[in-house]
Write a structure and sequence with these properties.
161 residues; disordered C terminus; 8-stranded mixed β-sheet; alpha/beta; 6 helices; single chain; YbaK protein
């Protein structure tokens, strides 16, 4: 069961969380619309390669990872999106594309967009395309210790471009 590893980890740290179940949806924007959660409050996990190493980029569902910003923030020579084929074996307990933003459970670095730190809580895929998890942002930040960096363009900059 995909949720068991994450639930056990959170329970062992006495973290409060809520599971939200919904009908099957595969895109972050589709999930946001289906569950009536703002795309700013729903986080998506994007798997990238930074100088050949797998890492997670966690961004609001309403935004896209800016690979140039991530490259600069990570101090990497090369940053690119990883293919599902490259990472599917790292998440044996998750459905492809539904990984939670807990890189610490999967041995990879986590880069989180700094805009997420302004949220009191965060909602994300919990290992399936039918389950979301909501926890307090400070709890996730404490447990995962993501590198907080600007890896998306702000809405104002997107409109100016």
């Amino acid at each position: 069961m995909p949720l068991s590893k994450l639930r056990e980890f959170l329970d062992s740290h006495n973290i409060r969380y809520m599971i939200l179940s919904h009908s099957v949806a595969y895109t972050a924007q589709g999930i946001a619309a289906l569950t009536h959660i703002s795309g700013k409050e729903l986080a998506k996990t994007v798997i990238v390669r930074t100088d050949g190493d797998l890492a997670m980029a966690v961004v609001p569902a309403s935004r896209h990872v800016d690979l140039a910003l991530l490259k600069r923030a990570a101090g990497a020579k090369v940053v690119e999106l990883a293919s599902e084929q490259e990472f599917k074996d790292r998440f044996p307990d998750c459905e492809p594309g539904a990984m939670p933003p807990f890189g610490n459970l999967y041995g990879m670095a986590v880069y989180a967009d700094e805009s997420l730190a302004a949220l009191p809580e965060i909602t994300f895929n919990a290992g399936t395309h039918r389950d979301l998890m909501r926890i307090d942002w400070p709890d996730l930040a404490r447990l995962v210790e993501p590198e907080m960096v600007q890896i998306t363009q702000s809405k104002a900059m997107e409109h100016a471009a």
